[in-house]
Amino acid sequence: MKEIDYVALYAKSLKEDNRLFEQQKRLIESQLQGSSSLFKRMFSPNFKANARQYLRKIGLI
Amino acid sequence: MRKGYHLKGDTIIINRELTKLDLFVKDFLDILKKHSDYLLVSGFVSISSGRTRGTEDVDILVPVMDKNTFEKLFKDLQKGGFWCYQADSAEEVYSYIKNLQNIRFARVKEMFPNMELIPITEKRKAKFFEFAHPQKMMVQEFEFKIPPLEFEILYKELVLGGQKDFADAKHLRTFFADIIKKEKFKEYEPIIRSEL
């Protein structure tokens, strides 16, 4: 099964059964928690200055 | 068990709990709405309707505003616990807005998620069209504006065109199959193609 078929199957199931939203919530929040911890470790104690230096390096600002 | 969404008048109600991503967007919009209109576009539209994927940016269209309004917005965002990637001075950041360059805000001491403000004018025909034809969506007590579904789907397929965008479009086409109108695709396609 291709990824795009899985996307369609999931969306079709979700359309009929909102309980599937629970697993989506867990995934989103776990990603946010992981990213938050990572960048706090990388950039503290001068979070903003270090973050901007990183953002310049990757060409985002 | 309930359906994934239902309609209440013109509003699409998504039948799910709020996530931390929703609360981040809601906090930002509560401040932004005091100063400007907006339209949430792209990844957040798919994710808020159940697409299971990670995201770092929440894209939001905002009409170009005057410097005075922007300074008030910028100060309120800072007071509300957001920092701007580009700079700490409203004057410095306003030069980006004036030049139609995107700017980003995140919560203090966080990198992601961030709100990516995309300044628009009437000259950006497709973007201005979707901005002027919002669709209301609601999750619990959080109401927000997105593009017409058919517009969002076509934009992802015709303009963005990456693997992630096609998957987002497929999700929207399938999840909202019962309310999508074929004739709207025909109406929107030339408007979207004008941006290519």
Describe the protein:
With 61 residues, chain A is mainly alpha-helical. Chain A has one domain (3-57). In chain A, 79% of the residues lie in helices and 0% in strands. Chain A is built from three helices and no strands. In chain A, helix 2 crosses helix 3. The longest helix of chain A has 23 residues, at 21-43. The mean pLDDT of chain A is 95. Chain B has 196 residues and is of the alpha+beta class. Chain B has a domain at 19-148: Beta Polymerase, domain 2, CATH 3.30.460. Chain B has eight helices and nine strands. In chain B, strands 3-4-7-6-5 form a five-stranded mixed sheet. Chain B has a four-stranded mixed sheet with strand order 1-2-8-9. The relative contact order of chain B is 0.17.
Which series of helices and strands of chain B comes N to C?
EEHEHEHEHEEHEEHHH
Poorly predicted tracts of residues of chain B: none
* Strand elements of chain A, count: 0
The gross shape of chain B turns out to be globular
- State mean pLDDT of chain B (0 to 100 scale): 97
Low-pLDDT residue spans of chain A: none
Distinct helical segment count of chain A: 3
CATH architecture label of the domain at 19-148 in chain B: 2-Layer Sandwich
Derived from helix and strand composition plus strand pairing, the structural class of chain B reads alpha+beta
- Oligomerization state: heterodimer
Question: Which secondary structure elements does this structure contain, and how are they paired or packed?
Answer:
The complex is a heterodimer of chains A (61) and B (196).
Chain A lengths: L2 H14 L4 H23 L3 H11 L4
Helix pairs in contact in A: 2-3
Chain B lengths: L4 E4 L2 E4 L5 H13 L6 E3 L1 H6 L8 E7 L3 H13 L2 E3 L5 H9 L4 E5 L6 E7 L4 H8 L2 E5 L2 E5 L2 H12 L2 H13 L6 H12 L3
Parallel strand pairs in B: 2-8, 4-7
Antiparallel strand pairs in B: 1-2, 3-4, 5-6, 6-7, 8-9
Summarize it.
The complex is a heterodimer of chains A (61) and B (196). Chain A is an all-alpha fold and 61 residues long.
